[in-house]
Amino acid sequence: MNCNNSGKTYMVTLEGTRQMNLDKIIILLKQGKHIREDCVYSLCIQAQELLMNESNVTHVDTPVTICGDIHGQLHDLLTLFEKSGGVEKSRYIFLGDFVDRGFYSLESFLLLLCYKLRYPDRITLIRGNHETRQITKVYGFYDEIMRKYGNSNVWRYCCEVFDYLSLGAIINERVFCIHGGLSPDITTIDEIRSIDRKQEVPHEGAMCDLLWSDPDEVDTWSLSPRGAGFLFGKGEVDQFLQTNNIELIARAHQLVMEGYKEMFDGGLVTVWSAPNYCYRCGNVAAVLTIDGQLERSYTIFDAVQSQNGMGHTIIPTKKPQMDYFL
Amino acid sequence: MEKVVQQTDYDALSCRLAAISKGYLPSVAFQVQRCNYHGYKEMHMEYLHSLKSVSRRIHSKIFRAMQNSFPVMNYGTYLRTVSIDIQINDFLKSHSKFQNVQIINLGCGSDLRMIPIIKNFTNVTYIDIDYKDSIEMKRKILDQNRALKKALESDDDGETNRYKLISCDLNDEAQTVRTLSESTSSDSPTIVISECVLCYMDDHASKQLISVVLDIYKTGIWISYDPIGGSKFSDRFGIIMQSNLRESRHLEMPTLMIYNSKETYSSRFANCNVEIKDMWDIFENDIPKEEISRLKSLQFLDEVEELKIMQTHYVLLKASW
């Protein structure tokens, strides 16, 4: 497998060389460098093999750091790892929405995939509502791939990986992690285990709701302004916590200006990990670390500057279209 | 700076075309039924078509931009467009007995509102004002396109043309006074529109423009749509917007952080009766449920919080005097 673009060839023969190769790709990705199409293909195939064996709801041990939406903000993802120990030392759960909106969806997603392949027990990837063919066609990932490769192959490889991502995780049997929220069709976590997840996210039903729903001050299940999923309130959360004997639902999916927001007497938390979302929202980001005693601690971080100290642009600001009303 | 400001019209046009292509506009409830706009999509397609023969470069820029617009932008374009249409329409309906009502669209760019309005209200004189280059481009397009030209031609009875395209640098006080005095009537009830215009002017020039206009016309309303920077201590939207626009296209918004709230923005029209809402207020309170569910059916709206952040930083003001 020839995976870099500097002319050297790395062959995957033994586990050792595979790891060395992954480490090299990781370095390239961190620099935002181009990864060859056949290399992306190979990574995606390996990732599918690995993810295929994970259950819909993965068991994870403490201590672990829970991370919310990333949305292609590669430089902020690197900050996230820096501020929270790094995958070499700490365990992570990513709650989905790796791609779309930011300029580096591919690099962000591949970096997480490489970490998953390199340190399978230290990183859990959960599917977000953006990890679908339909949404990535609207929200930027597809266009990014067309821009970077001139064809949609890489997008297709990635979408096939999306289909294998877990739907949720459970930490020490006490903290339930999901991208969006609850579903009126799901009472117990066991019911999630019986979903056939290896497909494009449907427009309705349990799998859709888990990825799309939002908590809100509502008395019961209500229509979501997003056009998919539901709004659910304290009643639904309390019921779910009690039925499943858990103490917290950790989810992402909604921008929170302060990076995180606890609701319903601390029974649910939203974690948001894309600072200055879309390079214009002005929010900070957070990750949540759950320790051995299930104590919560939040790490807040801000966006990287669009230029480094030398005045070099690291985030392209010359967008094809400016997202303001002018 | 003049060029950079002119180019913002391409953004406005491509946003409108994107909203049209996805079905956000025209709104049947607001634009067709309430404002009696017809052929909305067609007139925009005609305009885009003729733009191609006037400038391939601008056409391809706009065409590219309209291909990848996010739902959050389409919602904002929808809100901006229909809420201004409604304000204009309500005023015109309540002034149908006047022999002449005039609309002065400051920094008109490629706006095509004049077409349905001139047709619907025979007592309206419509004056589009912008920089020379913008006016020349618009004039060429409207001249070239038979359908659009016909829609704007004099009435059958041979009355003088009720549509005027006039070039003027609104930063130049003397030129503005001269232009407005020559081409408009100071006695007629007047609608002044400034849609993302004041935000590009420096404080002094925008104050002068407002006072010149309010001095010339005896009675009227001023409809103004602009971004506001935000006044809360933790609100960084405006600062980030200024630096993003400066870095990416050298576009300045000199008063974004001066008139950073509904209150401070309204203070520019101190002697008028002012109503002001931010666009999120309008989305939450003024758009009926059926219309909201129609919008929802067009595209998945990924991020409601993001829409809220954007729309709380744009205002629609109506100042009456």
Based on Cα principal axes, name the global outline of chain A. globular
Count of spatially separate domains of chain A: 1
CA gyration radius of chain B, whole angstroms: 19 Å
Low-pLDDT residue spans of chain B: none
- How do the strands line up in the largest sheet of chain B? 3-2-1-4-5-7-6
Q: Could you give a short account of the major beta sheet of chain B?
A: 7 strands, mixed
Which oligomeric form is depicted?
heterodimer
Structural category of chain A is alpha/beta
Question: What is the count of β-strands of chain B?
Answer: 7
Rg of chain A: 19 Å
* Number of helical segments with 4 or more residues of chain A: 10
Mean pLDDT of chain B: 94
The total tally of domains of chain B equals: 1
Q: SSE string of chain A, helix = H, strand = E?
A: HHEEHEHEHHHEEHHEEEHEEEEE
